Description:
Blueprint: E1 2-4, E2 7-13, H1 16-27, H2 39-47, E3 54-61, E4 64-76, E5 79-89, H3 94-106, E6 111-115, H4 123-130, H5 139-145, E7 159-160, E8 163-164, H6 175-178
Amino acid sequence: MARNGEKVFQVLPASLEEVHRTYENWAKTVSYVHTYRDQNYLNWRFVKDPIDMHQFHLMKAEDRDLGYIITSKTQEGNSIKLTIDDYVVEGNDHRLLSKAVSRIAEQQDNLGSIQIRGFPNSELKRALAREGFQEKTEPLYSLILKGLGRNPTSNLGLAKRGVDLTRLDCWYLTDSDIL
Length: 179
């Protein structure tokens, strides 16, 4: 168990169905631009991935799902790199996510590094730093997001249902969306 303020939660192994149910509940509560993760997508992207073996983790408090994390492992020399491929967390509570990632890391043998991506200067990066994560610059990720940081002019029509598509804080992207 881990504590986040007053929240007590567990990180448990999860099924594809549990991940999908958790995603659907999360998607109803947010207005982010994001890849729709239906069960077919999750199956194609993670279960049938020919390169990586993924593990599903559920963050659970009593009888309530707080979010999920999907990970993969890569052998790097004599150690393992754990990649956080996808995640959603109730209320986008990045402190809860960073604590859950730490709990998953504690359960790994021979762990050398953990890879998780976040927007520059984001709450996620600050929460991960509080858990002891160190930032490594990745030019590819910065290049992909570079065009999203510009301010729109009113006549470009870059808004959909009141969401300004040029604002970074309106986007929800994880490794599975980028790579």
